[in-house]
Give the backbone structure.
Amino acid sequence: MLKEIDKFIRDVFSSNSKGAHTYDHTIRVYHLAIEIGKELGANLRVLSAASLLHDIGRVHEKERKISHSILSGEMSESILGRLRYSEEEIEQIKSAIRTHRFSEGLQPTFLEGEILSDADKLDAMGAIGVFRAIAQAESTGVGIQGFLKHADEKLLKLHRLMHTEPAARMASKKHEVLQSFVEELRAELAKFSDPDLFEI
């Protein structure tokens, strides 16, 4: 069943290989969510589908001007129906997807939604989070200052926003890595802003 969903999302992401929200991001979110879900006794059938499908709407977000968390839920219905998920399961999956997005400030209303939200945030932290943020800055052309702005406005706040205890433990270590990189980057950049740089 998950293999069918995986094939579906591979096809969706085949046209989206740059930036921070690609197929590999989805697979990491899936593994993080399942790790947390197993520890907390979550419904893994709902959680696995929600984590695999949570970002598929991104490929149409700009053209349709609708949040990908809404589009992803809508796009999920057909494959979930074909795979014989119940109506209740589909609604739970769509709800988890709808509330996973940091920027909309929506709060998950059940455990699986909390875990998906946490797993998505965790992949924006640590060494992988740094790489993703730089990849996104490069693809959008905002450069180093854009990366630092994004780190200040979002990434460095994520460790305080975890819903579950296992995610909070993971976030603590990942935050240290992220914070260390940002501080070192700023320190190195400061050397090149010296007004006496051209004095010999």
Notes: The chain has one domain: 2-191. Residues 2-191 form a domain with the Hypothetical protein af1432 fold (CATH 1.10.3210.10).
